Amino acid sequence: MSRTKYTWLAVGFGLSGLLVRWYESYLMGQEIGHVPISNLYEVFILFMIITALVYLWYEKKLEIRNLGALILPIVVIAGLFMIWYGTTRKSYLIVPLSPSLQSYWMKIHVPANFVGYGCFSAAAMSGVAWIIKDKGWIKALPTLQSLETLIYKLISTGFLFFTLATILGALWAADAWGSYWQWDPKETWSLIVWLNYAAWLHACLINNVSHKILSWWAIIGLFITLFAFLGVNILLSGLHSYGRL
Q1: Are 109 and 165 in contact (CB under 8 A)?
Q2: 13-27, 54-68, 98-112: range with highest mean pLDDT
Q3: Cα distance between residue 105 and residue 243, in whole Å
Q4: Does the CA dihedral 60-218-78-20 come out positive or negative?
C-alpha cells in the first residue's frame, strides 16, 4: 500500500475516533455532549487530521510526490504528544464543557484556526524540503519551483483561515466577555502569528526576497505558531487558561 493510501486510512481512523467521541459524549448526557474540539487532546487529533488532509489535497492538486516523508513526521510528533498528554493528564476522559466553551462560536472558530495551523506546519516542512533540495542532499524531492509554489499556497491558504479564525475569535470574545479584544496573552500571540505571515506574504509578493530566506522564514514561523498554540498555555495565563497544560 502506498504512503498516500496509508495517510487516507489514518485520516479515516482519526475522523471515526472523533465522531465516536462526539456520540459518546451525548450518551453521557445532553448537558455533557459537545463537539470534540474542546481540549488539547481533542484538538491535537483535529490538527493531525487537518494537516494530513492539507498534504493529501496539495499532493493531488499540484501533483507533488515524495513530500509525505517530510510533512507527515510532524503528524507523528503531534500523535506522540497527544498520547503522552492524554495518558498523563487523563484528558481522554469526556467531561462537561467549561462555561466559556459552551458557545456555538467554538464550533467554527477552532476548526478554522486549525486549518491555519495545519497549513503553516505543512509549509514549514516544505521549507525544510526546499533547503534539503537546494543543497542536493535528497534528489528525489520535488523541484525547487514546485516547492516554492507549494509553500506559497500553503501559507496563503493558512493565512486566510487564520484571519477568519481571528475574526471569529473576536466575535466569540465579545459574546463571552463583552469585549472584542483584551490583549490576553493568547490574543496577543495570535496577532503576532498573523503579522508574521502577513509580512511573509508581503515579502513574497514584492518578489525582492530570496526563496532561501522565505523557506527559513516559513520554518521559523512554525516555532512562532507553536509558541502561540502551546507556549502560551505552558508559560502564561489569562482568559484562555482553560487550555493550560
Answers
A1: yes
A2: 13-27
A3: 16
A4: negative
